[in-house]
Structures are given as C-alpha cells and as structure tokens.
Design a protein that fits this description.
The protein folds into two domains: 27-192; 195-261, Type 1 dockerin domain, CATH 1.10.1330.10. 20% of the residues lie in helices and 31% in strands. It has helices spanning 3-23, 107-110, 207-218, 226-229, 239-250, and strands at 29-32, 40-45, 49-54, 65-66, 78-88, 94-105, 115-120, 132-135, 144-148, 154-155, 159-169, 182-192. α3 packs antiparallel against α5. The longest helix has 21 residues, at 3-23. 32% of the residues are buried.
C-alpha cells in the first residue's frame, strides 16, 4: 500500500474516531408514564366546581427519545398539548393550579442545567412569553414543577384553556452523565375556592400574610382565614405554615404548592 492510501485511511479513521467521541456526548433519554395513568385527569369535583386537564395521552420510552437540541425540534424534543377545563357554578372565584409530579428523575438529569421545560400558549414558539420556564436542576423524586399558579389563574365562571408543555435537553449539553437516564412525570393539579396562603383575606399572598400568621401563633390576633393560613393542611396553624409561606413568597410560588396536593 502506498503512502498516499495509508494517509487517506489514517485520516478517515481519525474522523470516524472524532465522530464517535462527539456522538458519545449525546444523551438519549426517555419520557415514561405509568400505565395506569389516566389520559384525562380530573383533579377536583364538588357540587359547585370541578376541573380537569388532558395532556394528550401517554408518552412512553417507545414514543420519544431526547438528544441535545432546541425546544422546537419535532424529533428530539417533547411537546405536549394540555387542554384544561374548569366548571364553576359557585358565587365566587375558583383558583386553578397545575403542576408536574416528578415520579422519577435520573441523577444525571437532575444534575444538569440543560434539562429544561417551558409552558406557553403558543404551539409554534417555546421561548416567546412563556408562562413558566426553568430547568430540572436540583429536582428530586417526589418534587413538583409548578405550571399554573392559582393566584394568577382564577375564574369567576367556567373556562377552558390550551397550553403547550415543552421538555428538552438543550443543545449546549455535553456531559456524558446525562446519558442513559430515565424520567417519569405526570400531570396533576387542583382547583379550589380557597386561596391558600391568603391568611388575611385581601386576595393577595405576601409578607402581610406571614405577619398575620405569626400574630395568630403569638396570640395577638384571632382574625385569620384559617383554611387559607393552614398551608400544609395539617389542621394546625403554626410556625411550619409560616416557614412554607415564606419560602413560597421568596420563590415567587415556583415549585411550591400551598394547600392539598
């Protein structure tokens, strides 16, 4: 074999090796859902109001694989249409919360800054004016990812809505620890005529509610919206409720659910 042919083979071999190494940084992961998980999830049913959400059916490990990409990639990013419904025959507001239950997430994904999500009302744009966006960094099994927050999502009458949930591994990802990782999320939610956290009943959730709870605990007031102030729903208003509410305010309600969930 002459030197020219040897050189060509050597170059081809090096290119193949480079492609193999680069390919190794791509993280193929799956969305999986419990086989018993209902397509249409009914959260709350009372004589006066009810709410539900339809996330379009199951996504299993056979349906979609993810690789580093942008959020609009139809092949390697997940887009789920979520149709919400609320029936309100009461005389007041009903607050609608929607979130993702994190049933399982691999440590390689929860350790990444590039495993992302966004909720929008646009089917063709995942980055313009998102309702909420973030990463799964630091998220562990049993955590929640808030999508719609009741205080920003209240209704005086029946209503429906359409939202688009995007989940993707950003194209900036190069960490091999994100390879061969599974995750399992499910849609969950609640509607209520109680604005949990609004301890003073002014229709807002802020530091005034923490002050009201602390004054109640110290015995300096009996004026409190008891059910709203009992944010962990244990039947008692105490320092735990104050701490949870403070964390909620500090994080602008992100990934913290007040009230039953």
């Amino acid at each position: 074999m002459d030197n020219k042919k040897k050189l060509i083979i050597l170059i081809v071999s090096i290119i193949a090796l480079i492609l193999l190494i680069i390919g190794g940084t791509y993280a193929f992961i799956t969305w999986s859902s419990n086989e018993n998980q209902a397509t249409n999830v009914v959260f709350t049913v009372t004589p006066d109001f009810s709410c539900s959400a339809d996330a379009g059916g199951h996504i299993t490990s056979n349906d979609r694989m993810l690789a580093p990409t942008d959020c609009m990639d139809p092949e390697y990013a997940i887009q789920r249409t979520i149709s919400t419904g609320l029936t309100n025959e009461s005389d007041g507001k009903v607050y609608y919360d929607l979130w993702l239950d994190v049933n399982n997430i691999g440590s390689g994904l929860s350790g990444s800054q590039n495993f992302k999500y966004a909720l929008t009302q646009q089917a063709d744009n995942c980055v313009a004016n998102p309702i909420v966006t973030g990463t799964f960094n630091g998220v562990t099994n049993g955590d929640v990812i808030t999508l719609l927050i009741g205080i920003n999502n209240s209704y005086l009458s029946s209503a429906t809505g359409t939202y688009y949930l995007y989940i993707w591994l950003d194209e900036a990802e190069t960490d091999i620890n994100t390879q061969n990782q599974n995750f399992d999320f499910s849609i969950n939610g609640r509607c209520s005529n109680i604005l949990y956290g609004d301890a003073n009943g002014d229709g807002e959730i802020n530091s005034k509610d923490i002050t009201r709870i602390n004054r109640y605990i110290n015995g300096s007031t009996t004026e409190i919206i008891y059910d709203a102030a009992d944010v962990n729903v244990d039947g008692v208003i105490d320092s735990t409720d104050s701490t949870i509410l403070q964390n909620y305010i500090n994080n602008n309600g992100k990934n913290i659910i007040l009230g039953p969930h």
